[in-house]
Amino acid sequence: MKEKLLKYLTEFTSHSEEVQRSILDALQIEKYKRGTILLHQGDVPVIKCYFVLKGCVRQFFVDEYGKEVTSNFFTEEQAIPIFNDKRQDEFSRFSYACLEDSILVVGDLDSEKGMYHSFPQLETMIRKMMEINISEVQEEFADFIHSSPEERYKTIIKKRPQLVDRVPQHQLASFLGITPESLSRIKKRIEKDDD
Predict the structure, then answer these.
(1) Percentage of the chain with pLDDT > 90?
(2) How much is the average pLDDT of 135-148?
(3) In Å, how far from its chain's centre is CA 36?
(4) pTM of the prediction?
(5) Is rRNA-binding among the key words of this record (predicted)?
(6) Cβ neighbours of residue 173 under 8 Å, at least 6 residues apart?
(7) Are strands 68-74 and 37-39 parallel, antiparallel or unpaired?
(8) What's the DSSP call for residue 74?
């Protein structure tokens, strides 16, 4: 698992192999069982960041009508920032749940500061990774807003095909902003067009 992190250290820093190994050894890596809730909607979040080495984590909220709405899925090599930079007493708007057994790098503000002090290039690496992540999220959101449900599904097939098989259909439909029945019709239409 740490090989994935080593890839980023090599790409974004000029640390020696020995220093890279020291960084990897200092990271907190945790295993979570399927169904584990990392954070509940309505809790006061501790400032944390997760990085998915293996597994799938769902971000969702329960709306005013009691309906669960999926807002994102995080899979391998994706960061899950859980920040509450407005006020420390503000409640989380989202819940985060492991849809699969997952292995995550877990960071908190205090440990990150210590790591940045010990390994200054690490902060640059994290910043670059976050810039890439934010850019991707902005692009995905812009595409999402301007596309039809069928185009959204085709984008999932093209950019994140593993989600189709890894997440329940009703959660994927919620993420796409449609009903499970509409998603079934779209899938059938696409399969028919491919024949």
Answers:
(1) 43
(2) 84
(3) 15
(4) 0.84
(5) no
(6) 179, 180, 182, 183
(7) unpaired
(8) E
